[in-house]
C-alpha cells in the first residue's frame, strides 16, 4: 500500500497509548515516559482497562472513551489483545497503529494475521509488530522504548533491528547528528522497507536514507522503491548475514557462485544503493551525507600537520578509488609564499608538526581557492606546541565563511582530529563539518560522497542501443523446453542445448549425441572431414559434471582413437556411477584457440530476487578461483559491460603482449541475450555456459548445462514473474493505422530513447510545451530527459510513437501510478506539426487500455483551461472534467476504469 496514510502515522496530530504500564521497568511505561519527555504537542491519551491512572496521568478503559480520535494508536498491550484493539481503533477512525508488542506469531491463524485483517477492514496501516517503535523529532514524537530521543536533522533511518536503531540514536547524540525520522519496522506485517523508502524519498526534510536490513520480503516492490528513492537522495544500507551460506546446494557452477549475499549485493547495486559493511561505516556515511553535498569529482586535497597520517590517508584514498588532487605549479607557488620551507611541497600538504591555527588558515585558504581539487580533508594530530581547539575553531570559521560565499558551489570540507576532545568534535559538528576519529574513516566518508555522485550518474546514463539484428526464435526455444518438461526431464540434452543457444544467436561448437560407439565414430568422421579434432563426453542425465567421472577426453585425431576413448569413457562412468542412466557419448568438434579466454556465463535462481545473471572466469576450477560478478536482469549493453568490469578476468579481455583484445561487446551481447532468454522462458531454472571461449574473432560456447522446471511465481504483476526488476514489456508494441492510412509504430519507452526525445522536442512549439509542462521550457537537460526515459515499468509507463515511413518520433504518452496503485496520472505530448491526425486519440486509448490491464481504478490528469482540444478529447473519452478548486487556470480530468 506504499505511502497511503503513512503521514498520519509518522506525523500524527493525536496519539493514544494502549497498554501503558504502572510497572517502572516495562516496555509500556518506557514508551509512556518517552512520549511525555519528547513534549509531543498533539493530543495524547492513555488506554488501560485495569488502571485509572498511570504515572500521574489519567487513563480510560477503552479507545472509544477517549475525548478525541487518535490518528496513531501505539500498542504495548499483551499479544492476545491486539486484534481486538486494532478493531476498536478502526471503528473509532484511527489511521493506523504502531505495535511494539512481540509474540504475535506468523502465518494463517496467527494473531498477526488477525490484527492485519482487522486493520484492512478499516484501511488502517500497521507498523510492527515486535519493534522498538518510531522517533520523529520534527513533530516531537518518541513512541519507542529507546533510551534517548534523537535531535532533529536530515537523516532518516529504517531498521529491521530495534537494537541497531537504538544504537544509532546513542551515536548520533555523541556526534551532534540529527534525524528526520527513525522507524523500527519489526516483523513488517504491513508497512515495510519499500513503503518507508517511498515516504522518506518524498520527505523534503530528509537528505539521506539509512537502512539496516536482514532480509527482503517483496523484492520487486523493494527494487522499485529503492531505485526511485536513490534517484533523488542517497540511500545507504548495511545488511547482516554477509557470510551466511546459500540456502541450498547448487547443481551448476553458476548456481554455486550465486550465493545469497552476492545476490543482495547485485540488487543494491542495480537499485543505486550504497552498501557499507558494518555499523561503523554506516555511522561514517551518516556523518558525511548528513552534512555536505557530493563533490563534482574524486580529487581530494589533504591538509595535515603530520606527514605519516597524511600518507596513510593517501594510501587509503587510492585503494578505494579516489585521486590525490594533483598540485599545480601555481598552487605550489601560493603555498610556498605562506608556508615554511619545510612543508611537503605536494599533496598531502604537510605543514609540519608545529603548525598553529594561523598556518592552517593560510594553507586552507589556498586549497579552497584551488580548482584542482574537488574536496579537502583537514587532519590534525594534537601536539604540545599548538592548541588543537584553536585550530579547530579557526578551520570552522573559515569553512563557514567559505560556504556563505559559495553556497551551492562550495566544495566539501571534511576533518579528522586524532584523539580530539569532545568539545572539538562538538565544534566541528556544530559547524556542519563531517568529522571522524581517524584518517581512514574520513577518507571512507569522502568516498561515500564520490560513490553517491557516481550512482546518480550511472542511473542517468543512456545505454547503447541494441543491434536490430538480434531477433531470437522464441517460439522454437519455448517448444524445446516444453517438450523436455513434458518428457519429465530436468536437464536438456546437449543437442537441445545447442539448438536453444542458437535460437538466441549464441554460437556453440558442433555437437552430436551418439547412442553407441559406432555412431560416435561416424559423427567423428564428419568432424575430421572439416579439418577439426574431436572431444568426447559422457552423455547422462544423472552426471552433470562430466569431468568428475573422467567423462571428457580431448583432442582425438583418428577414428580408432575415438573408438577406444568412447569405450573407456562408458566403462569408467558405469563403474564410478553404476546408478546413473547412461545414454551414450557426446561428440563435439574441438575448438583450439590458443589465445582465447575461458569464461563462465549463466543464469541462477535466487529465492528472494528471482533470476540472477552470473559472469566470471570459467574452467573446471571456477568455484575455487571465485572470480565472478552478479546482476539482476533485464540487462542492456551498458549493464552487461558493468557486470563484466566488476571481475578480475575483465582485464584479460583487453589486449596484452601478443594477445589481441576480445571482440568488442561480444561477451556483453551474450549476457544480454541470456537475460532475454530468461525473460522469454522462465522455465529455465539454471543455465551454465562453461567455458565460453572469447577472442578477437568472437565467442563460442564449448559446454553448457540447462536445468528446466515449472517456475515458482515469485512476483505479482505483469512481466516475467521471475524478475525482481520488471523487464521491457514487449507485448505492448503496436502497429497502428490512423487517418488517411498513416501508419504508426508504438512501443514502450526505453532508456536509450533520450537522444530521440531531444530531437522530437525540436518539433514542439513553445506554446505546446507550456500546455504540457505548465511553464515556459527553455531547455531540457540530460538529467531531466533521463528521468523521463528511465522507467522501471513497475510504477510508470510511457509509450513512444514513431512514423513508420520516416522512423521519426511523433508523440509520447505516459502514466505514473500513485503509491497505492489505484490511480494513475497521465500526460501526453505530440509533434506540433502533426496534430489533428488522430494520434492523440490513439495514444490516449492505448494508455487507458494499459492502465486497465494493470488494475488501476482511475486515470486522472491536470489540463490547462486554455487547452480546449485536450479537454474536448477527454470528454469524448468519458473523462469527468471539473475546475480545480485551488488553481482556477487548471481543470481536473478523471476517468473511472
SSE layout and pairings?
Blueprint: H1 6-10, E1 14-18, H2 27-37, E2 43-47, E3 53-54, E4 57-60, E5 72-75, H3 82-92, E6 96-99, H4 111-121, E7 125-127, E8 133-136, E9 141-144, E10 152-159, H5 162-175, E11 179-184, H6 193-202, E12 208-213, H7 219-230, E13 235-239, H8 253-257, H9 260-271, E14 274-276, H10 279-289, E15 299-304, H11 307-319, E16 323-324, H12 329-338, E17 349-350, H13 357-369, E18 375-381, H14 388-406, E19 413-418, H15 422-430, E20 435-436, H16 439-459, H17 474-486, H18 494-503, E21 511-514, H19 517-529, E22 533-540, E23 552-556, H20 559-576, E24 582-590, E25 597-606, E26 610-617, H21 622-625, E27 628-631, H22 637-645, H23 666-680, E28 684-695, E29 698-701, E30 704-708, E31 734-737, E32 743-748, H24 754-761, H25 766-773, H26 782-789, E33 796-803, E34 808-817, E35 823-830, H27 839-853, E36 858-864, H28 868-876, E37 880-883, E38 890-896
Parallel strand pairs: 1-2, 1-5, 2-4, 5-6, 6-7, 10-11, 10-12, 12-13, 13-14, 15-16, 15-17, 15-18, 18-19, 19-20, 35-36
Antiparallel strand pairs: 3-4, 8-9, 8-11, 21-24, 22-23, 22-24, 25-26, 25-28, 26-27, 28-29, 28-30, 31-32, 32-33, 33-34, 34-35, 36-38, 37-38
Helix pairs in contact: 3-4, 6-7, 7-9, 10-16, 11-16, 12-13, 13-14, 14-15, 17-18, 19-20, 22-23
Could you describe the 3D structure shown?
The protein is of the alpha/beta class. Mean pLDDT is 89; it is low at 245-250. The strands form six sheets. An eight-stranded mixed β-sheet has the order 31-32-33-34-35-36-38-37, sandwiched between helices. Helix 7 runs parallel beside helix 9 and helix 14 packs parallel to helix 15. The chain contains 28 helices and 38 strands.
Amino acid at each position: 500500500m506504499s505511502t497511503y496514510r503513512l503521514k498520519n502515522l509518522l506525523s500524527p496530530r493525536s496519539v493514544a497509548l494502549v497498554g501503558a504500564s504502572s510497572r517502572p521497568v516495562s516496555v509500556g511505561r518506557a514508551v509512556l515516559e518517552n512520549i511525555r519527555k519528547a513534549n509531543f504537542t498533539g493530543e495524547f491519551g492513555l488506554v488501560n482497562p485495569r488502571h485509572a491512572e498511570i504515572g500521574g496521568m489519567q487513563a480510560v478503559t477503552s479507545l472509544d472513551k477517549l475525548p478525541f480520535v487518535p490518528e496513531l494508536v501505539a500498542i504495548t498491550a499483551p499479544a492476545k489483545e491486539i486484534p481486538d484493539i486494532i478493531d476498536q481503533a478502526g471503528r473509532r477512525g484511527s489511521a493506523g497503529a504502531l505495535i511494539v508488542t512481540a509474540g504475535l506469531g506468523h502465518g494463517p491463524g496467527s494473531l498477526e494475521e488477525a490484527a492485519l485483517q482487522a486493520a484492512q477492514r478499516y484501511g488502517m496501516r500497521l507498523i510492527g509488530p515486535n519493534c522498538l517503535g518510531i522517533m520523529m523529532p520534527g513533530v516531537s514524537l518518541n513512541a519507542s522504548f529507546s533510551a534517548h530521543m534523537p535531535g532533529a536533522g536530515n537523516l532518516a533511518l529504517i531498521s529491521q533491528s530495534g537494537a541497531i536503531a537504538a544504537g544509532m540514536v546513542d551515536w548520533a547524540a555523541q556526534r551532534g547528528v540529527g534525524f528526520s525520522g527513525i522507524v523500527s519496522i519489526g516483523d513488517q506485517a504491513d508497512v515495510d522497507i519499500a513503503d518507508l523508502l517511498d515516504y522518506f524519498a518524498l520527505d523534503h526534510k530528509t537528505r539521506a536514507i539509512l537502512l539496516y536490513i536482514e532480509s527482503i520480503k517483496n523484492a520487486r516492490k523493494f527494487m522499485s522503491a529503492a531505485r526511485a528513492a536513490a534517484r533523488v537522495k542517497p540511500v545507504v544500507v548495511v545488511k547482516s548475514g554477509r557470510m551466511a551460506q546459500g540456502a541450498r546446494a547448487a547443481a551448476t557452477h553458476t548456481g554455486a557462485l550465486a550465493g545469497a549475499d552476492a545476490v543482495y549485493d547485485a540488487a543494491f547495486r542495480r537499485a543505486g544503493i550504497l552498501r557499507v559493511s558494518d555499523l561503523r561505516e554506516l555511522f561514517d556515511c551518516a556523518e558525511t551525507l548528513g552534512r555536505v553535498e557530493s563533490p563534482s569529482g574524486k580529487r581530494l586535497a589533504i591538509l595535515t600537520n603530520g606527514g605519516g597520517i597524511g600518507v596513510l590517508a593517501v594510501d587509503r584514498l587510492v585503494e578505494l578509488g579516489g585521486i590525490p588532487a594533483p598540485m599545480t605549479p601555481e598552487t605550489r607557488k601560493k603555498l610556498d609564499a605562506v608556508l615554511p620551507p619545510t612543508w611537503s611541497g605536494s599533496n598531502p600538504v604537510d605543514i609540519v608538526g608545529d603548525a598553529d591555527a594561523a598556518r592552517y588558515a593560510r594553507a586552507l585558504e589556498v586549497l579552497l581557492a584551488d580548482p584542482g581539487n574537488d574536496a579537502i580533508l583537514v587532519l590534525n594530530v594534537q601536539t604540545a606546541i599548538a592548541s588543537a581547539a584553536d585550530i579547530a575553531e579557526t578551520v570552522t570559521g573559515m569553512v563557514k565563511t567559505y560556504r556563505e560565499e559559495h553556497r551551492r558551489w562550495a566544495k566539501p570540507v571534511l576533518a579528522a582530529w586524532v584523539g580530539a576532545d569532545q568539545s572539538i568534535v562538538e565544534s566541528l559538528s556544530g559547524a556542519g563539518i563531517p568529522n571522524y576519529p581517524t584518517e581512514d574513516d574520513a577518507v571512507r566518508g569522502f568516498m561515500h560522497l564520490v560513490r553517491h555522485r557516481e550512482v546518480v550518474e550511472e542511473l542517468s546514463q543512456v545505454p547503447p542501443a541494441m543491434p536490430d539484428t538480434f531477433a531470437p526464435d522464441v517460439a522454437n526455444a519455448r517448444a524445446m523446453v516444453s517438450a523436455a518438461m513434458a518428457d519429465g526431464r530436468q536437464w536438456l540434452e546437449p543437442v537441445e542445448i545447442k539448438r536453444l543457444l542458437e535460437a538466441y544467436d549464441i554460437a556453440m561448437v558442433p555437437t552430436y549425441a551418439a547412442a553407441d560407439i559406432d555412431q560416435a565414430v561416424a559423427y567423428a568422421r564428419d568432424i575430421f572431414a572439416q579439418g577439426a579434432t574431436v572431444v568426447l563426453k559422457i552423455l547422462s542425465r544423472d552426471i552433470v559434471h562430466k569431468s568428475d567421472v573422467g567423462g571428457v577426453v580431448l583432442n582425438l585425431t583418428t577414428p580408432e582413437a575415438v573408438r577406444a576413448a568412447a569405450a573407456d569413457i562408458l566403462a569408467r562412468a558405469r563403474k564410478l556411477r553404476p546408478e546413473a542412466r547412461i545414454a551414450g557419448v557426446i561428440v563435439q568438434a574441438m575448438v583450439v584457440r590458443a589465445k582465447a579466454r575461458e569464461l563462465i556465463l549463466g543464469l541462477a535462481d535466487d529465492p528472494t530476487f528471482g533470476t540472477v545473471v552470473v559472469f566470471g572466469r570459467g574452467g573446471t576450477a571456477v568455484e575455487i578461483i571465485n572470480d565472478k560478478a552478479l546482476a539482476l536482469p533485464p540487462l542492456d549493453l551498458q549493464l552487461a559491460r558493468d557486470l563484466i568490469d566488476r571481475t578480475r578476468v575483465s582485464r584479460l579481455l583487453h589486449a596484452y603482449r601478443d594477445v589481441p583484445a576480445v571482440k568488442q561487446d561480444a561477451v556483453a551481447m551474450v549476457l544480454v541475450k541470456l537475460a532475454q532468454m530468461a525473460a522469454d522462458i522462465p522455465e529455465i531454472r539454471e543455465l551454465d555456459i562453461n567455458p565460453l571461449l572469447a577472442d578477437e574473432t568472437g565467442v563460442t560456447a564449448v559446454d553448457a548445462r540447462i536445468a528446466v522446471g515449472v517456475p515458482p511465481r515469485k512476483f505479482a504483476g505483469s512481466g516475467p514473474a521471475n524478475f525482481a526488476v520488471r523487464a521491457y514489456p514487449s507485448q505492448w508494441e503496436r502497429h497502428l493505422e490512423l487517418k488517411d492510412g498513416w501508419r504508426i509504430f508504438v512501443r514502450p519507452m526505453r532508456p536509450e530513447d533520450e537522444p530521440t526525445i531531444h530531437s522530437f522536442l525540436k518539433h514542439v512549439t513553445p506554446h505546446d510545451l507550456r500546455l504540457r509542462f505548465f511553464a515556459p521550457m527553455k531547455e531540457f537537460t540530460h538529467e531531466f530527459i533521463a528521468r523521463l526515459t528511465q522507467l522501471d515499468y513497475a510504477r510508470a509507463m510511457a509509450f513512444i510513437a514513431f512514423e513508420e515511413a520516416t522512423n521519426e518520433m511523433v508523440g509520447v504518452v505516459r502514466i505514473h501510478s500513485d503509491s497505492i496503485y489505484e490511480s494513475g496520472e497521465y500526460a501526453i505530448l505530440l509533434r506540433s506539426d502533426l496534430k489533428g491526425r488522430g494520434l492523440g486519440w490513439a495514444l490516449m486509448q492505448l494508455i487507458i487500455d494499459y492502465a486497465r490491464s494493470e488494475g488501476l481504478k482511475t486515470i486522472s490528469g491536470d489540463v490547462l483551461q486554455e487547452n480546449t482540444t485536450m479537454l474536448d478529447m477527454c470528454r469524448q473519452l468519458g473523462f469527468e472534467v471539473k475546475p480545480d478548486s485551488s488553481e482556477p487556470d487548471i481543470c481536473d480530468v478523471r476517468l473511472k476504469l
